[in-house]
Amino acid sequence: MSDAPRPRNFLAEIVEADLAAGRNGGRVVTRFPPEPNGYLHIGHSKSILLNFGLARAYGGRTHLRFDDTNPVTEDTEYVEAIQQDVRWLGGDWGGHLYFASDFFDRMYACAERLVGEGLAYVDTQSQDAIREQRGSFDRPGVNSPFRDRPAAENLDLLRRMKAGEFPDGAAVLRAKIDMSHPNVLMRDPLLYRVRHARHHRTGDAWCIYPMYDFAHPLEDACEGVTHSICTLEFESNRELYDWVLDHTGPWDPRPRQYEFARLALGYTVMSKRKLLRLVNERRVSGWDDPRMPTVAGMRRRGVTPEALRDFADLIGVAKNNSLVDIGKLEFAIRADLERRSPRAMAVVHPLAVSIENWPAGKVEELDLPWWPGEPERGGSRKVPFGGELFIERDDFALDPPKDWKRLAPGREVRLAGAYVIRCDDVVRGPGGEVRALRCTYDSASRTGEGATRRAGGTLHWVHAHLSVPAEVRMYDRLFAVEQPDAEEDFIAALNPGSLAVAKGARVEPALRDALPGSRYQFLRQG
Ligand code: ATP
Ligand code: MG
């Protein structure tokens, strides 16, 4: 037992009941089993937090296991990226890093054992024929003509499959269960197929690869996993999971599979196949584009692991699938950043302002707090004020609407942390466009000193020459509709305005030395 917080969900209840009953010798071993065919996304983070959180709370451990049974789609780039992401989320697997391919020999031994016991056979029919004979929910299947091959013949064929005597698709190993089983997955499921493909770890050692439903329970059992947690789509696979373990054991501990609802989030897609398409078609800058729902993308966007944990707690662990409002994720991220981001000033679209009555060449160093809303946190930085400034272009209107609180000809505003200024004159270009503003300041109006001087609103600003040029990228939701998956082609649902780049932005000089990955909230820019 540990002092980590007890999760409150139905899986925690199962674990507690198992511990209370003394099952598995008091052990709790979970695993996170990604297929290394893409980067992790926010759905995976839910599964990571759940698996690692459960084990930590009950004094157990969690394994990171790469489910690398499909040699064609897998890549070591993904293996590296996934480890980085799991670690970043706080997942610590200790020495328990595994690959399904570590167990290929043991899986194959189990296959030979099933063959020897008359529980598996080699089928040399075409894939189409096998599929056709499976039947359907309301139609029983048909036995393969090879179903009753003698065990010795099956063993010989299986060994020849392994030795490379069959081309891809020419033979499969099938479990011999029941072709009229009400669960279609139990109708003599495929255990091995021939795949002459190079594997990223085992190279050319194998040309037969185990199917998911055979491999997964054996991986769990070989590692000593007690609670094998997966998403609801695998509910009907559980029967086969149990069958495989029951006929290859005894296993101690004997793993059990439990299902929970996968996370589906509005305004995004989560299937790795679709995310890969976004990357390959250059719709985004990469797997870590800040608009991507990937862990790497969110990290680049400034999201913290704590925010993702808060989000996971907020939505909980359910037994029914549902679409989660992306507003909940955005809320968790905002609440977290609010607490940890000092405030600073940046002008995204600068408009020049000259203060005509400011002493020529004078620079006043204002001392402004990093946390204006929470002065007790302390800390401040110097912000230079002078006769040449920039304000936000949108904060000025020639012909302002009625309740305009910002700058306009003849109006006054306060510059945050500084003085009240009045706009006296507008400098126009040849086409009538606003080029610059001529203003005057009230030397007795400095923020925090003496009488509070009233003015329309408060604007952010930077010094014209002492501020630092910056490129500001403003990210919005990647998709324009809540359910891109429901569209005929999800690409058509992309939000064309998901990235706006301002190349001529200016930020206050204190940010000149900000480290990559540091977080600031720009005043009035949310
Ligand atoms: P995808 O469809 O995106 O490829 P996957 O389920 O095939 O996802 P895996 O790498 O096989 O991806 O998943 C690793 C683990 O993460 C599995 O245990 C799976 O149940 C879990 N997982 C994947 N997607 C989600 C999700 N949206 N919500 C919760 N858990 C998920
Ligand atoms: Mg998968």
> How many separate domains?
2
**How many strands, what sense, and barrel or not for the largest sheet?**
7 strands, mixed
Proportion of strand residues: 15-25%
Number of strands: 25
Highest CATH level, the class of the largest domain: Alpha Beta
Rg measurement, Å? 31 Å
CATH homolog superfamily of the largest domain = HUPs
Query: Ligands in the structure?
Result: adenosine-5'-triphosphate, magnesium ion
Overall spatial form: elongated
Class based on secondary structure composition and strand pairing: alpha/beta
Annotation field: number of helices = 12
Proportion of residues in helical segments: 25-40%
Oligomer: single chain
Mean pLDDT across residues: 95
Which regions are unreliable across 5 or more consecutive residues at pLDDT < 50? none
Question: How are the strands of the largest sheet arranged?
Answer: 21-18-19-20-14-17-22
CATH level-3 fold name of the largest domain: Rossmann fold
CATH architecture of the largest domain: 3-Layer(aba) Sandwich
How many angstroms separate the termini? 42 Å
